[in-house]
Design goal:
It is a single chain. The chain is an alpha+beta fold and 170 residues long. It is built from 4 helices and 8 strands. The strands form 2 sheets. The protein has a 6-stranded antiparallel beta sheet. A two-stranded antiparallel ribbon has the order 1-8. Helix 2 packs across helix 4. The termini are far apart.
């Protein structure tokens, strides 16, 4: 029985270690580093630091990431104002889009989005051209961006996305 328990612990330990998301440490010294630009490497490192998962999308000239935050909210990060090849970008747009809830009229949805925008200024809520509710945050790094500030912006967007879903879509 002890041998079976020991084998179980050896098998279970690596699996558990792989599934535990990273804990962001706001006091970590690397949070004071200046990221000179946005690119896959700089943004993916911060996403991993906060426990988010990212998958590369887009093209070399128009890079993008599909992101799942620690609270399981999903978003896209679109890189903008990029040099050729996407290695150095001066902006990112963090966007979350939902299907339009069938049980909410278009007028009610528009009014709820307007109320959300009055209460919260961190990001912009709107209806896409095809009527889907969306949330967006735009960041620029013309002169660099502090790594810890990017982490906070990403975490707050994830929380704001959760709040948007609870307050506007339900």
């Amino acid at each position: 029985m002890r041998a079976a328990l020991a084998v179980l612990m050896l098998v279970a330990a690596p699996a558990a270690a792989q599934t535990v998301p990273a804990r962001w440490n706001p006091a970590a010294p690397e949070n004071r580093q200046l990221l000179p630009t946005f690119n896959y490497a700089t943004v993916e490192t911060v996403l991993a630091q906060i426990g988010a998962r990212a998958e590369r999308r887009g093209t070399a000239d128009r890079p993008a990431l599909a992101v799942t935050f620690p609270n399981n909210r999903r978003a896209a990060i679109l890189f903008g104002s990029c040099e050729a090849g996407g290695g150095a970008c001066k902006a990112i747009s963090i966007q979350a889009v939902w299907n339009r809830p069938a049980e909410i009229s278009a007028e009610q949805l528009a009014a709820s989005i307007q109320q959300f925008n009055r209460r919260y200024a961190f990001s912009r809520a709107f209806l896409t051209a095809d009527g889907r509710p969306a949330l967006q945050r735009y960041l620029t790094a013309d002169y660099g961006f502090v790594r810890g500030n990017l982490a906070v912006n990403l975490l707050v967007f994830a929380n704001q996305s959760e709040r948007f879903a609870a307050e506007v879509l339900r």
